[in-house]
Amino acid sequence: MTVVDRYLRPRVDPTRIGHLILWPISIMMVIHRSLILAVNGARTDDFTPVYNAALAFLNQRAVYNENYETVDPHYLYPPSGTLLMSPLAIIDPQNSRWLFIAISVVVLIVCAYLLTRLFGFDHRSWIFPALIFAFFSTETVAHTLIFTNFNAFVLLGMLAFMMLMLRRQDLWAGVAIGLTFAVKPILAPLLLLVLLNRQWKILITAVGVPLVLNVLAWPLSNDPMDFVKRTSPYLFESRDYYNSSITGNGAYFGIDGWLVLLMRIAFALMAVFSLWFLYRYYRRTDELMWLATSSGVLLGTFFLVGALGQGYYSMMLFPLMMTVVRAGSAVRNWPAWLGAYGCLSFDVFYSKEWEPFGRYLEYGKVTWGWSLLMIAVFCSLLFRYLDMRRDGVLDADADKLDSREPTAVA
Known about the structure:
The protein has 410 residues and is mainly α.
């Protein structure tokens, strides 16, 4: 290298290149999604019903008195959730919403950090800014901020639950997931993994926290029984709007009931096999892989076959997608990532030239995204099972694995 080359081609540490690229892009992505899109808002407004309910709760007025015949966002949190949300109404609606957005952004960045650490990477790794960029480029994060929804806190509770469960801090793991149950119990299927791993103490606080909060909120509420009589039945209805589940999509597109039922059964059976295979062959050899993949299978299937599956629930699949960095991941294939594109992409497919086709694609992309992702995971595990059976190692390996004791992950 000549003297001039030292100035024309200064050396840069290769490990810094990822940081130099990803941090400025990630920071600008966060600023755009929060200060511009989220503050601008949209026609769909999840925050106003929550604020109004919190205000009514603080003033001892009826909370669960909405008209569920309309397609506007409704307040659906139980009394425990109302109690936790009530501080929002201490200040005016606009500042309260902006504060909620700001806290949600901080929570999402913390979630990116926790996911980085969960999979064994240092916060100084390029993985951390890459995850921030990936988070804020998705529809699920963008619409959570734009609609001003609680989902970021659910993801935080889920990641804290997984980390504490792996470290065998069972009671605290139950607190983490129990707080999410107190507001919206979409993580309830994960309790199956607690039962399978025989970490019974988690159930004490997972059930106890929302129960105690409901006991505290009940006498403070004006109409707590209306949540049971009016709101709860609505939660189990399969509506044909803002619903990407198989039943919701089928109702919107007019699909025959028998076909909808057949698809729901098919995905449920695929989930059963996937969960069995993961439990039998991964739980004791790679507990993180078992927990992250099984949680993705449970929640993805729940979103598909349940009564209500909304697109921005997809952020709960982030741990499943993160398993791609580990050997043996069930998402190391292109169909899985095509499915991830469907349920995570912020792209809009409305078309002026091909209006019906664009509308069908736009309204169905989350459903086919979840579907393709679950099918890809199922097929990946099924092919491994068939290969193991062909080579005669199913029973031998299972016996060897079953003789081991589960170990905690630091």
